[in-house]
């Protein structure tokens, strides 16, 4: 006899935006559609209180109001989101979830956590953003005003307080998910809750080396970056890479920057060798990746690095820092390089200066990306749900 599959109500921080949470959430809903799983996604969006039922998959999209304010160019926070509680309550009453799953301390996540408590439903929570590190980096404008020793101590204090607050929030869940082992260990230590790995997958058909469309006469090496152009992504390092490569005598290179953010104007001013493509999606994004020769991703705060995996699927070796999630998906000297900030330019010169090794890395990057599938990611999530809803067994959702 096949066990009943759990009915999941999912409350993501973002869904339509350009970030890792939204990217994962869209794939999670798509997985539920492919498997015809009972799945309700409650999210913020532009539709005016749109309720859609597509077989077992339901969506409730709710607008943010005039009190909402920007956190990023395409990400907002609405302190009055509580006004939607009556409608969400009606939909939850009809859907009858077995558990709720939130993705972080946004207004949607806090509302989901509160409703789980009110309804007596088990709560799962996934960690996607290093909010404690973001808080410290977003305070850099203030910290620069302090003496160095005091600045470092204050920055660490901000990070510690933000982590304590985040741990307090996540401890209300009964089971946690995180995209890399280091974060799982941190969450288990600070919350006392079990944590399961929830890495990311990649669409290896969309992101493919065959999408490359470079003119034969174009001999420049293209260094790529895809992501939010913000201080926590450490994008200022791209300017340093350009300067150090030029000091080494390299001239035949340019940057391809995909994304937007608060640092864009500064980067445009200081990166004369860069093309700024804005936000790209679908085929346009896959072509941009494939046209790169090397992916340069200097972030220290990413919990996984979707864009690193997408670059690898496109046959593009990647250079990343030793921090966060990206080094867990890069094999040093095989699919790319793992180096500290002061080694980025030298790593670029080393890889591109050896055409044979570069070609080997391109093949290895693609091969590694082929091992990552979204279905395996979410099958693992449903297996972990068993601890919340024992009637749910992974074999009940297997393809």
List the helices and strands and how they pair.
Layout: E1 8-11, H1 20-35, E2 39-44, E3 50-54, E4 57-62, E5 69-72, E6 75-77, H2 85-95, E7 99-102, H3 107-119, E8 123-126, H4 131-138, H5 140-143, H6 148-170, E9 175-178, H7 181-191, E10 195-197, E11 221-226, H8 236-247, E12 253-258, H9 264-270, E13 274-278, H10 282-290, E14 294-297, H11 306-313, E15 318-320, E16 336-338, H12 344-352, H13 355-369, H14 374-385
Parallel strand pairs: 1-2, 1-7, 2-4, 7-8, 8-9, 9-10, 11-12, 11-14, 12-13, 14-15, 15-16
Antiparallel strand pairs: 3-4, 5-6
Short description:
By secondary structure, the protein is of the alpha/beta class. It has 2 domains: 8-201 and 373-396, Glycogen Phosphorylase B (Rossmann fold, 3-Layer(aba) Sandwich); 209-369, Rossmann fold (3-Layer(aba) Sandwich).
Helical content, roughly? 25-40%
Mean pLDDT: 88
Give the helix tally: 14
E-strand count: 16
Q: Over the alpha carbons, how many angstroms does the gyration radius reach?
A: 22 Å
Question: What is the second-level CATH architecture of the largest domain?
Answer: 3-Layer(aba) Sandwich
Query: Under CATH, the topology of the largest domain is which?
Result: Rossmann fold
């Amino acid at each position: 006899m096949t066990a009943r599959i759990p009915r999941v109500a999912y409350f993501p921080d973002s869904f339509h935006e350009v970030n890792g949470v939204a990217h994962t959430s869209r794939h999670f809903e798509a997985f539920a559609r492919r498997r015809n799983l009972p799945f309700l996604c409650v999210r913020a969006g532009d539709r005016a209180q749109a309720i859609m039922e597509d077989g077992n998959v339901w969506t409730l999209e709710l607008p943010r109001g005039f009190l909402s304010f920007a956190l990023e160019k395409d990400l907002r926070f609405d302190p009055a989101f509580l006004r939607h509680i009556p409608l969400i309550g009606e939909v939850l009453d009809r859907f009858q979830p077995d558990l709720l799953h939130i993705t972080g301390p946004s207004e949607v996540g806090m509302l989901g956590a509160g409703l789980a408590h009110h309804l007596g439903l088990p709560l799962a929570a996934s960690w996607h953003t290093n909010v404690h590190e973001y808080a410290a980096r977003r305070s850099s404008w203030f910290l620069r005003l302090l003496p160095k020793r005091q600045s470092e101590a204050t920055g660490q204090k901000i990070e510690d307080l933000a982590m304590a607050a985040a741990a307090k929030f996540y401890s209300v869940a009964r089971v946690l998910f995180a995209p890399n082992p280091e974060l799982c260990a941190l969450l288990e230590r600070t919350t006392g809750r079990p944590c399961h790995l929830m890495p990311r997958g990649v669409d290896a058909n969309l992101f493919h080396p065959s999408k490359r469309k470079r003119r034969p006469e174009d001999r420049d090496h293209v260094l790529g970056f895809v992501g939010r152009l913000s201080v926590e992504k450490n994008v200022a390092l791209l300017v340093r890479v350009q300067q150090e490569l030029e000091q080494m005598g390299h001239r035949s290179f340019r940057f391809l920057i995909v994304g937007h953010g608060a640092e864009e104007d500064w980067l445009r001013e200081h990166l004369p060798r860069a093309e700024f493509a804005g936000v790209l999606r679908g085929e346009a994004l896959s072509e941009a990746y494939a046209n790169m020769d090397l992916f340069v991703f200097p972030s220290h705060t990413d919990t996984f690095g979707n864009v690193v995996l997408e670059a690898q699927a496109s046959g593009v070796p990647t250079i990343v820092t030793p921090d966060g999630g990206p080094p867990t998906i890069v094999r040093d000297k095989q699919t790319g390089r793992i180096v500290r900030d002061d080694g980025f330019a030298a790593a670029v010169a080393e890889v591109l200066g050896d055409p044979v090794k570069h070609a080997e890395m391109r093949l290895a990057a693609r091969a590694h990306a082929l091992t990552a599938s979204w279905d395996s990611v979410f099958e693992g999530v449903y297996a972990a749900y068993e601890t919340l809803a024992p009637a749910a067994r992974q074999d009940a959702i297997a393809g």
